[in-house]
Amino acid sequence: MGWLEILRTGWDAVRTHRLRSALTMLGILIGIAGVVMTVGLGEGAQQKVSSQISALGSNLLIVSPGSATSTAGVRGGFGSASTLTIADAAALSSPVATPDIAGVAPVKNTSESLVYGSTNWTTSVVGTTPDWLAVRARTVTEGRFLSTADQAESAAVTVLGPTTAQELFGLTDPVGQSVTINGIPFSVIGILNSAGSDSTSNLDDQALVPISTAASRLIGGSTRNSVSSIYLAARSSSVLSAAYQEADSQLLSLHHAALPTAADFTITSQQSLITTATSVSKTLTILLASVAGLSLLVGGIGVMNIMLVSVTERTREIGLRKALGAPPAVIRRQFLVEASVLGFAGGILGAVVGIVGAIVLPHVINNPIAISPTAIALAIVVAVAIGVIFGVYPASRAARLAPIDALRSE
Amino acid sequence: MPPDVEGPYETTPDSGVPAESRSDSGGWSGLPAESGSDFVEWFPSGATTESLADSVAWSGELQTDATEPIPPVSVDPVIQLEGVGKTYRTGSVFVEALRDVTLSIASGEYVAIMGPSGSGKSTLMHILGCLDVPTTGRYLLAGDDVGRLSEFELAEIRNRRVGFVFQQFNLLAGMSAWRNVELPLSYAGVRRAERRTRAVDQLGRVGLDDRIDHRPGELSGGQQQRVAVARALVTDPALILADEPTGNLDSASTDDILNLLDALHGQGRTVVLITHEHDVAARAQRVIQLRDGLISSDSGGL
């Protein structure tokens, strides 16, 4: 009896007991659909997190100022001091001392109200250098970015985020228009691409100005030379730690800190954020997938249960087949194939339900679900394997039945 | 089956030829003389057996050769039972269904086995059909000691050499008549297209040309039993075992089936019929009465 023949027999048996087969498959179906969706959810979350983080700029290091202690002895948190200066940023861009640092973008943040005609919009005004674009991995969709010339002249020019531009100008083309910031008219020279938002701020809602302009015309006073943070881009992700070391030692010597513990700044990397975020979502995926896997196991036990019932119920049929010359191996194969047909059909249906869920669900829960072909293929293989594994015992019981005992049963 | 296990029947011309090509050369309409000669060929020239005393003491060890040649008999027996006993165990109770049955049935004989319920006739038929093996004694089918065959070989014997007809018909309810008939062929490894041709052909011979696609539930009892007869015949077996084939049938259908069996006997097949109706048994050439697991009378024999 060929495999095709046995497959046909198995399919016939599955079809004969439609309701029972459907219920058995349901167990596998739910398990597989669950695995496909949870793995997709996890993968989607990971992709989202890593795309968000890489939107911040790849190979990015962020230097933040250290803590400031007030005269009353209250110690502020990291970033409360204004220990970082434009001079620090300039020192970090030295190709000799810091060869692995490709770009340096000091930023000076302030919140200002922007006015265009009768419209106003309060947003974060960021003074920075032309390097910012590369360091933060952004592009301009229209116009141009800040130039070294703008920097040198402390020009009253600004590049707006797309949200800011939209809020101020609506349908008007903003490039070439003039906005008033802190009473000074700035000319809009470009619009940034859209990058969504990171964990703390909307990356699309900001106005960039040359740092020299910010220092001299917007944020004056004693803090005019201090910066809120310095973004550094390493030449590649492989030299990220080298870049970290260079920046660290350069700043330690500039700040006359003898020991690293005395540093009045901190350097963080995006890498650590990515690692943390992905490990969190991985843990979540494993958790969800193991719940789904558990339901798959329950589904498998359902297959075994049904196959055992089937063997008991069809004892007479088995006896007859044996009387007609079916060797034990063929009987065993017949029931194994029947179980794996259940597993396979359940797996296919489960994958379909999983894919449909992955397409429909994101509209409801606002979380992307990745459809991973490998995960789906693997899930179907697992479904068939479950059919086979949980079919072995019932099948060998069927094969072991003595033909005469089987024929005599009622 | 391990390649080194060779039953004598394997080397004979009969089973050496694939079932499908055998049917081409005549099917079950083959002449009695031909079928008879097949049985003669099943017996290798050096076929031997052991004395009754030996077989009773047979320990169950595999024996590679038997030592004593039996004296030649006038008619070659296809079935030889030597002191066969069968004990079943039901829980802790041992039931002796057969005690000491010694019996020879020649090829082409038409034998009826009779006896009250519990006399062991069904057990005897199961042993004859290789559905069961004796606990004691020996059963030689065409010279092969059935007790020494593997399960695979027994399945092959049931498939190729024995056709069963049961009282309960034992058709598979979910399958059409022709699918039921082709089932033994599928275990014989015959290709699908040919199986259908042969099954349909066989159904025609039992007068069911117009019922090939009917399911058992759509057929009368007599028709179902005819499907079962067609199924028993489809592999062209030499031995037909019928276990009360008319027990569930009305008198008209009973006549149909018995006429079919008569015809099979006429073609030279060995027919063994179990019944407790005397008029059914009257059709047979030889009637064996069983009582309490022993033969109480035998109208004929070798």
Written account of the structure:
The complex is a heterodimer of chains A (410) and B (302). Chain A has 410 residues and is an alpha+beta fold. Chain A folds into two domains: 3-52 and 276-408, no CATH class; 82-263, no CATH class. Chain A has 14 helices and ten strands. Chain A has a six-stranded mixed barrel, surrounded by four helices. In chain A, α2 packs across α11 and α9 packs parallel to α13 (373-400). Chain A starts with a helix and ends with a helix. The relative contact order of chain A is 0.19. Chain B has 302 residues and is of the alpha/beta class. Chain B has a single domain (10-58, 74-298), classed as 3-Layer(aba) Sandwich (Rossmann fold). Chain B contains twelve helices and ten strands. In chain B, the strands form two sheets. In chain B, strands 6-7-8-3-9-10 form a six-stranded mixed beta sheet, sandwiched between helices. Chain A binds chain B through residues 1-2, 5, 12, 16, 316-317, 320-330, 402-404, 407, and chain B through 126, 129, 131-132, 151-152, 155-156, 158-160, 164, 166, 170, 172, 174-175, 183-184, 186-189, 192, 231, 235.
Please provide a brief summary of the model:
The complex is a heterodimer of chains A (410) and B (302). Chain A has 410 residues and is an alpha+beta fold. Chain A contains 14 helices and ten strands.
Q: Quickly give the structural class of chain B.
A: alpha/beta
Q: Which range does the strand content of chain B fall in?
A: 15-25%
Q: Care to count the β-strands of chain B?
A: 10
Number of helices of chain A: 14
In which order are the strands of the major sheet of chain B placed?
A: 6-7-8-3-9-10
CATH architecture of chain B: 3-Layer(aba) Sandwich
Straight-line N-to-C gap of chain B: 34 Å
Which regions of chain B have little confidence, pLDDT < 50, spanning 5+ residues?
1-75
The largest inter-chain interface, given as chain pair and residues per side, is: A-B, 22 and 26 residues
How helix-rich are the residues of chain B, as a percent range?
25-40%
Shape descriptor of chain B reads globular
For the biggest β-sheet of chain A, the strand order reads 2-3-8-5-7-6
Biggest sheet of chain B, open or closed, and with what strands and sense? 6 strands, mixed
**Mean residue pLDDT of chain A:** 83
Gross morphology of chain A is elongated
